[in-house]
Design brief:
single chain; 134 residues; mainly alpha; Helix Hairpins; 5 helices; elongated
Amino acid sequence: MISLLLALRGLWRAIAAVWRDPETKALPFVAAALVVTGTIFYWRTEDWTIVQSLYFSVVTLTTVGYGDLHPTSAGTQLFTIIYILTGLGVFVALLASVAEQYIKQKSESPSARDRLHARRRRSGTDQETGAPEQ
């Protein structure tokens, strides 16, 4: 459970780093705008509820595609083609940026083992046995 919480903390830090990076700062906004645009479009053209439209937008952009909802008119199908091609690129770029920041943070921060060894050296104990150094 602790390792899951630590991984989530690292993921959250990576997402925050994407927000701070001037090169990737716009990606979360563009991704959110795509979801909102798709949700509104499908809500207005397919007569789905807002929740169904949001669900379809997210399932489509994440390429899950359960098939329980699908566009019914030719215009909506054409929009969906453009929506997928555009959204897929944006979401891949966003996920790649988060992964890059996560890996960068992992490589820059010392491991738990290194921190433990450093703490033992500062306290004057032997790393291997835990006995006081001579």
